[in-house]
Amino acid sequence: MAELSHLDKRSQPVMVDVSEKKITRRKAVARCVVILPEEVLALLQKDDFKTKKGSVFQTAIIAGIMAAKKTGELIPLCHPIGLDHCEIGMEINDQQEVVIRCTAEIEAKTGVEMEALTGAAIAALTIYDMCKALSHDIVIKEIKLIEKTGGKTDFKRP
């Protein structure tokens, strides 16, 4: 069984030492789903996702990218890294859910999974914030890593 990488020999929190790792191209894709009540989704679609606070999707995309760039400040043991690329896409699926995908990329000694996950999560929370005046019956679900490449191991969710 794998060990937790953020604990030292005395079980104290520690930032992972990446000094001996090789720099590689790393990419991570995360996904998050927002379920909006039917009447809220219909209203947003009618108004092209614009509210008095501004465009819901565009604001959420900007918030997600900003959050991905600040992941090292938000999550205590994450390495502060710059991003070479960050992109957030949104679509309405067949179940009428908002599906958010955040892709983060960097050439570095450590990966960008947390940046992709943070970007997707904050984009979802921004949608909640912009729509909560219409309803509090909004559900954010399935924040998950879809794939990661680079580093020791690659991962792809089936």
Tell me the layout of helices and strands.
Layout: E1 24-35, H1 38-46, E2 50-51, E3 54-55, H2 56-69, H3 71-74, E4 85-92, E5 98-108, H4 113-131, E6 139-149, E7 155-156
Antiparallel strand pairs: 1-5, 1-6, 2-3, 4-5, 6-7
Helix pairs in contact: 2-4
Give your account of this protein's structure.
- The chain is of the alpha+beta class and 158 residues long.
- The protein has one domain: Molybdopterin cofactor biosynthesis C (MoaC) domain (Alpha-Beta Plaits), CATH 3.30.70.640.
- The chain has four helices and seven strands, in the order βαββααββαββ.
- The chain has a five-stranded antiparallel sheet with strand order 4-5-1-6-7, covered by helices on one side. It has a two-stranded antiparallel sheet with strand order 2-3.
- The longest helix is centred in the C-terminal third of the chain and has 19 residues, at 113-131.
- The chain is elongated.
- 34% of the residues are buried.
Q: Quick one: overall form?
A: elongated
Q: What gyration radius follows from the Cα positions, in whole Å?
A: 17 Å
The CATH architecture category equals 2-Layer Sandwich
CATH superfamily descriptor = Molybdopterin cofactor biosynthesis C (MoaC) domain
User: How many individual domains?
Assistant: 1
Structural class comes to alpha+beta
Average pLDDT taken over every residue = 92
Assign a percent range to the helix content: 25-40%
Strand content: 25-35%
Multimeric state: single chain
Task: Describe the largest sheet.
Answer: 5 strands, antiparallel
CATH topology: Alpha-Beta Plaits
The CATH first-level class comes to: Alpha Beta
Number of strands: 7
The strand line-up of the biggest sheet is 4-5-1-6-7
Our measurement of the CA-to-CA distance between the termini, rounded to an integer number of angstroms, reads 22 Å
Low-confidence stretches: none
Helix tally equals 4
Order of helices and strands: EHEEHHEEHEE
